[in-house]
Structure formats: structure tokens, C-alpha cells
Write a structure and sequence with these properties.
Order of helices and strands: HHHHHHEEHHH
Number of strands: 2
């Protein structure tokens, strides 16, 4: 039996439904607008976090002790730019949005904490406190304890590079100025003592307990950052050992003879 062919109808010949309004359309249009706002806000925060990271890294690379006036001037301009970046996303990080987009801004905040804590250490030989770090962030943006601690983890790496470079160029362990205690001059702590104290405090850090511990950034990254932190402190310990013990056995600037590498021995750095 032959089938019946349906007549072709052009879309323009079909009955118009433009006058018919679905009761669900306003609801879905609201959802669409909310999603658009969410994605726009998220992109603004991610871009600000990347800019914060870039500016903070530039500040860290410029820091030295003592800090020249030109470096301080340049870093102050970068800190002003960072304040403007924080202010630009302050409205997007209030109330519940502070937690909704915390992961997007977290990386930039950690780099910022690393930069300002490194500068504070070079100036005063002490860590920046949580309250001081929170006061440095404008716009009412909250600083989480996780971002603060993770920023201090990253600080150890910068202290390691600063210590080894200083020992390689000056032959001395970086330490604070001599202070007076009555009639006795007391040398302030050197950087290795400070790094060992930091290592002891980080090793005693418990990140596996407490509400929400398994989902916190600190719990996710603490194990990896702890291993990196220990390696950094050990590098400074070996450098100090080589400077104190082996450095007395050879003149400054001594290099091994060319046959050392041929015999499979690593070249020894001089201090």
C-alpha cells in the first residue's frame, strides 16, 4: 500500500506563536541574566588575581636588604596598583560572594602575602601578623587564614634564595643588626635560626582536623608545600655548613681544577 505524502509547508506559512507567551520564559530569562553576571564577575576576579600575582612577583624580585630608595619608590607604585586592583573587585567579593569566588582570588592573595611579608622581614626581621596582613588589603576584602598561611609557606622559598645569594656574594650569613642589652652587645638572630623556627611551626601545623578541613585549600596544598619548605631550609643549612666548615679550608673565590668534573665529582661553590 502506497504511503500518503505530507504536503510541504514553508515556515512562513505556519501559524505564528509570537503572540503566545510562555509562563516559564521570564523565569529562564532571570536565570540567564544571573549566569551572565556570575561569569562576568568570575572573569573580573580571575583577571585581577592574575594581575595581583604578576605585580607581587615583581615586588619580590626587586626586594633586597638594605632596600634602596629607588626600589622602594618603584615597589610603592606597584603596591598602589595592587590596592587599585583589590578595590576594582571589592564589590564582587562581599557577603556570600566572598566564599563563592574565594578560589579565583586565592592565588593572587597568596602572592601578595608573600611579597608584603618578605618586605616586612627585610625591614624588621619579623613576620607580618595576620591582623597586619588583613589591614593591608583594602576594600573590605577578607583574608582567609588559609591564604595567609600558604603565603608564608611561599615566603620560605624567597628567604632561602635571599640567604644563599647573600652568603655567596658576601661570605656571611644574613642577620639583623647588633642590639644593645645593657652593657652587652647582643647579635640578633640570623636567617637560618628564623628558617628553622618557621620549619618547626609548620611541621606542627594540623590541617586535617576542624570543620571543612578536607575541602580547605590549606589541607589540599599543605603536604606539598611542607616538603618544598623543608627542602628550602635544608639548602640553607648545607650552604651555611659549607661556608663555615669548608670555607675556612680554601680562599674566597677558589674553584676546583678541571679534572674534578672528569672524575665525577661535583664542582664546589666558594663563599
Amino acid at each position: 500500500m502506497a504511503g500518503t505524502k505530507r504536503p510541504f509547508e514553508h515556515p512562513s506559512d505556519l501559524p505564528s506563536t509570537s503572540g503566545t507567551s510562555s509562563p516559564f520564559m521570564p523565569m529562564f530569562e532571570t536565570f540567564r541574566n544571573e549566569l551572565d553576571e556570575h561569569h562576568d564577575r568570575r572573569e573580573r576576579i580571575i583577571k585581577a588575581s592574575r594581575d595581583l600575582t604578576a605585580l607581587s612577583k615583581k615586588i619580590v624580585r626587586q626586594l633586597w636588604a638594605p632596600l634602596p630608595a629607588s626600589v622602594m619608590k618603584e615597589n610603592n607604585s606597584r603596591l598602589s596598583a595592587i590596592d587599585e586592583l583589590f578595590a576594582s573587585v571589592a564589590d564582587d567579593l562581599h557577603d556570600i560572594n566572598a566564599w563563592r569566588y574565594q578560589r579565583q582570588i586565592s592565588g593572587g592573595v597568596q602572592e601578595y602575602i608573600e611579597a608584603v611579608s618578605f618586605q616586612r622581614y627585610l625591614e624588621t626581621q619579623r613576620l607580618i601578623t595576620y591582623e597586619e596582613a588583613q589591614a593591608r588589603i583594602p576594600g573590605g576584602i577578607g583574608l582567609t587564614e588559609d591564604d595567609y598561611v600558604l603565603g608564608l609557606f611561599d615566603l620560605v622559598g624567597e628567604l632561602m634564595r635571599f640567604a644563599i645569594t647573600t652568603m655567596a656574594t658576601s661570605g656571611t650569613v644574613p642577620r639583623g643588626a647588633t642590639c644593645s642589652d645593657g652593657d652587652i652587645n647582643v647579635d640578633r638572630r640570623d636567617i637560618l635560626m628564623d628558617l628553622r623556627d618557621l620549619r618547626a611551626q609548620f611541621e606542627g601545623l594540623d590541617t586535617s582536623s576542624g570543620a571543612g578541613a578536607w575541602t580547605s585549600p590549606l589541607n589540599r596544598e599543605a603536604e606539598k608545600k611542607t616538603e618544598v619548605m623543608k627542602t628550602c631550609v635544608e639548602k640553607v643549612e648545607r650552604a651555611v655548613y659549607g661556608m663555615i666548615v669548608r670555607g675556612r679550608e680554601r680562599p674566597k673565590g677558589w674553584v676546583p681544577d678541571s679534572g674534578a668534573e672528569e672524575r665525577g665529582r661535583e664542582p664546589v661553590e666558594s663563599y
